[in-house]
Amino acid sequence: MITNENIQNxxxxxxxxxxxxxxxxxxxxxxxxxxxxxxxYDWDDQELMEANRIGAYHKESKIYxxxxxxxxxxxxxxxxxxxxxxxxxxxxxxxxxxxxxxYKKPKNVKVKPYSFPRSxxxxxxxxxxxxxxxxxxxxxxxxxxxxxxxxxxxxxxxKTNLKLIVAFSELYKHTKDITxxxxxxxxxxxxxxxETKIPMHLRTEYVQKLCxxxxxxxxxxxxxxxERQQEKFDEGIDEQFxxxxxxxxxxxxxxxxxxxxxxxxxxxxxxxxxxxxxxLNGNEFRAKDxxxxxxxxxxxxxxxxxxPPCFISIFFRSNPPKYPDAATSTRTGxxxxxxxxxxxxxxLVNTFLFVGSRxxxxxxxxx
Length: 367
Known about the structure:
This protein has helices at residues 4-12, 45-49, 58-61, 155-175, 181-195, 200-213, 219-234, 243-250, 282-287, 343-346; strands spanning 17-20, 34-35, 38-39, 53-57, 63-68, 86-92, 95-104, 114-116, 127-130, 134-139, 143-146, 300-303, 311-315, 326-327, 335-339, 350-352. By secondary structure, it is α+β, with helices and mostly antiparallel strands. It folds into three domains: 4-162; 176-260, no CATH class; 292-352, no CATH class. The strands form five sheets. It has a six-stranded antiparallel sheet. The longest helix is centred in the middle third of the chain and has 21 residues, at 155-175. The radius of gyration is 26 Å and the shape is elongated.
């Protein structure tokens, strides 16, 4: 629900607000409204009051959002383990379910997005960390669960918690009906000790929550299993359970557990993940958080003569000149595709490889 009181609260917290579409058109639904074809960042109170939904821009508001999209609502069961902050939800089958926790970004800290699964298609994502678009925080289909100013929280800690939520949501699905609970927790304790660097206090919190969700009253014994397995690992005892034994015990491929595994020799900051091809409409493309360029390779690395017959696409920021065999356009910023018919024709063209660069107003890359 949108009220003047809510709008004034949001503004007092330095949130930059925007009306958000509610539409049956999926390309328009949940997108910020625009003025003169662009997103607007200075809507007046009356315009916000008349909206169906109000969103807060992430970058402009210096906030980020932990978004729970799990269709089964399993991940949402663990959302209470995150620090209290501005919390938004919605009604599902008549019950209010928390779906967003919004935090203030610490100063001079870069927020990197996260989602699981990383290569999920639309509607399959379970959790996300969003920092470059906007989040709907009030409206006809939103409930403000905890109406407080977003608290400052380290996004890396937030990401660790999201990964734990992914792992324990998966474990919940496989353990809510098991009978050999003690054996399960010994194997879980071994896997956590051998293959993760999750702090013990976080392991304890998530194990306690898992016990609560599975109606397991022997919480102390379960936590003790986790602690004893860590002690054995610290003492160098080789007879230690791992993720293989845990997976075999549950009869499941625990992809969620992989999120919290420690990978020797790989720096999380440097690890790159291929996410496949994504097809975006214009609004989604504009909202997408693309990597920023780090450097430009400005020397010819190869000539087309070394390649088989191929197609080359070159982006021009200004009106491109006309070349033979080229599909050209007079519109600024047109993508030009050259159909090279033969290796001989390839010899006429040299190409440059540019990494995330903005091309100048001339035909850079064409001799």
